[in-house]
Design goal:
It is globular, with a radius of gyration of 19 Å. It has two domains: 151 residues, UbiA prenyltransferase (Tetracycline Repressor, domain 2, Orthogonal Bundle), CATH 1.10.357; 124 residues, Four Helix Bundle (Hemerythrin (Met), subunit A). The relative contact order is 0.11. It is an all-alpha fold.
Length: 276
């Protein structure tokens, strides 16, 4: 249960962002900087997920009755201690990193994680944008931790932001029943499923076009293009076409699972840029 509550797949994706960044920059090495960066990323991601479950407990009683806190398998007080320990662990290991990376971790990422669920999540669309930005900034943080500057990882961060924003919008559509009953004003609650779908479609089209730019600029070749089309863009567009036929929370749940595959493929697409 203590592993389930941190959402290990999300933690793996976050740490994988560090590995991908290191490989793209030709700096992959199991040194202190890499290990400390991985611990900071994993701890903050896991802590944020536990905090989200604590604050979202009334919503999860409706939307996700199987979550560890809802089922009572983990007491709320224990979860609070767990989250605090994870945040403190990440903050502590940030002092093994260079000053810009430590500043980014403690002055930007950590405050956003702490404030997202209690404040920003309740603001339509802004919450989605912020959580997507937090996930995307892992690439920037990784580069800063490894090199001291943010230079080459802005495009991968943009891809990660787009994929994350799409998934966050779908999750809000999936959770509309619980959010409505509790009074959380997400975009689907405020504007309805139809308008949420049109926003989702717009973001998806923008992401698909954005991702193609470096290929047509001849920066990346056929491997990048093939992985992008087959692994990300086709599944995204097909799942949205299927969702358009019947916009129900159940279908949104299925699309959310498909988006996990697209997120993994998106990571592989980003990793493929190391070939060029």
């Amino acid at each position: 249960m203590y592993l389930k509550i941190v959402r290990p797949l999300n933690v793996v994706f976050a740490v994988l962002s560090l590995a991908i960044t290191a490989d793209i920059l030709n700096l992959f090495s199991l040194n202190l900087t890499m290990v400390a960066s991985a611990i900071v990323i994993a701890s903050f991601t896991a802590g944020g997920n536990v905090l989200n479950d604590i604050i979202d407990l009334p919503i999860d009683r409706i939307n996700r009755p199987g979550r560890p806190l809802v089922s009572g398998k983990i007491p709320v007080k224990v979860a609070a201690i767990y989250a605090s320990t994870l945040f403190l662990l990440g903050a502590g290991f940030s002092f093994y990193l260079n000053y810009p990376a430590r500043l980014l971790a403690l002055a930007v990422i950590l405050p956003l994680l702490l404030l997202y669920t209690p404040i920003f999540k309740k603001i339509p669309l802004l919450g989605n944008v912020l959580i997507a930005a937090i996930l995307a900034i892992v690439f920037i943080f990784s580069e800063v931790a490894l090199t001291g500057i943010a230079d080459k990882m802005w495009f991968p961060a943009g891809l990660a932001f787009g994929l994350s924003l799409i998934r966050e919008l779908v999750k809000d559509m999936e959770d509309i029943r619980g959010d409505t009953e509790v009074g959380v004003q997400t975009f689907p609650v405020r504007f309805g499923m139809a308008k949420s779908f049109y926003l989702l479609l717009l973001v998806t089209i923008c992401l698909c076009l954005y991702a193609l730019i470096p290929y047509f600029q001849l920066r990346f070749g056929y491997v990048y293009f093939g992985l992008l089309i087959v692994g990300v863009e086709i599944p995204l567009l097909l799942s949205l076409f299927w969702l358009s036929k019947k916009m129900t929370p159940l279908r949104c749940s299925t699309v959310s699972l498909i988006l996990k595959f697209s997120t993994l493929m998106g990571m592989i697409v980003i990793w493929s840029t190391a070939l060029y």
